[in-house]
Amino acid sequence: MLDAGNPFFADVSRGAEAAAAAAGLAVILCNSGQDAAKETAYLNLLAEQRVQALLLTPIDADPVRIRRLIDRGMRRRLARPPGRQRGHARGVG
Questions:
Q1: Rounded CA separation 47/39 (Å)
Q2: 0.85 exceeded by the pTM?
Q3: pLDDT, averaged across the chain
Q4: Is the Cβ–Cβ distance between 69 and 47 less than 8 Å?
Q5: What are the tens digits of pLDDT across the range 15-56?
Q6: Separation of alpha carbons 67 and 46, rounded Å
Q7: Would residue 50 count as lying in a domain?
Q8: 89 domain-assigned
Q9: Nearest to residue 63, comparing CAs of 39, 92, 36, 35?
């Protein structure tokens, strides 16, 4: 997530945790603090750990990078905070 202090992301993470728990799964939350290098490090770590899926609000919605995650078999959802437009660098969905 871009910012754990943002109420939008807090609501999204609570909903994701509830849905995952109902399915017998766990959620790993990663807060990039809007730091692209930190985001990349988290994405690499999650890919290495072979997580089943990502709920992603990317700093850099680079389609090549996202395609690499998909090619590794990772399911994903991109979330846009309120006010972000489809196709905006932080809000591709």
A1: 12
A2: no
A3: 76
A4: yes
A5: 889 988 998 989 888 888 888 888 888 888 888 888 888 887
A6: 15
A7: yes
A8: no
A9: 92
Instruction: Say how far apart CA 57 and CA 36 lie, in whole Å.
Output: 12
Q: Which domain holds residue 60?
A: 7-78
Both tokens of 51, joined, read 């997580």
Helical spans, DSSP H, in the chain: 7-22, 36-48, 63-71
Token digits of residue 16 = 């994701």
Task: Please indicate, yes or no, if residue 19 is contained in any of the structural domains.
Answer: yes
The Cα–Cα gap between 13 and 1 comes to 9
Q: How many CB atoms lie within 10 A of CB 72?
A: 11
3-state helix, strand, coil in the chain (%, to 5): 40, 10, 50
Q: Which two tokens stand for residue 53?
A: 């899926």
* CB contact at 8 A, 51 and 61: no
Nearest to 53 by CA among 71, 76, 73: 76
Domain count, the chain: 1
